[in-house]
Design a protein that fits this description.
- The protein is mainly β.
- It is 0% helix and 51% strand.
- It has strands spanning 2-7, 10-13, 18-26, 34-39, 46-51, 57-59, 67-72, 77-82, 91-97, 109-110, 114-119.
- A hairpin with a 4-residue loop joins β7 (67-72) and β8.
- The radius of gyration is 13 Å and the shape is globular.
Length: 120
């Protein structure tokens, strides 16, 4: 099993920045793709960004140019740097991981989520 714990969420004003971290434990050697999902009230959970062990990346169109995902393979830690935040970025953000290298869908391990609130 793999455990993931998110941190770094909080309240920020529109235009501000926030950096989320995801720490892993357990069978971390099995992890390849890691990603960040978010779920806003009344909306479906969506993949925001993802990154493979080989550092290929994926970004949702809504965050391209504003968010940057990065990882440290030795630590199996992933970060999401969020800049130019907008109120519509408000959501619970979830860290996810999987053994495969396909970044979209079918993540096996999930964190509990961290709240990001962007005020107008």
């Amino acid at each position: 099993q793999v455990q993931l714990i998110e941190s770094g969420g909080g309240l920020v004003q529109a235009g501000g920045s926030l950096r989320l971290s995801c720490a892993t434990s357990g069978r971390t050697f099995s992890i390849n793709a890691m990603g960040w999902y978010r779920q806003a009230p009344g909306k479906q959970r969506e993949l925001v960004a993802a990154i493979t062990r080989g550092f290929s990346t994926y970004y949702a169109d809504s965050v391209k140019g504003r968010f940057t995902i990065s990882r440290d393979n030795a630590k199996n830690t992933v970060w999401l740097q969020m800049n130019s935040l907008k109120p519509e970025d408000t959501a619970v953000y979830y860290c996810a991981a999987k053994p495969g290298n396909s970044m979209i869908g079918n993540y096996d391990y999930w964190g509990q989520g961290t709240q990001v609130t962007v005020s107008s």
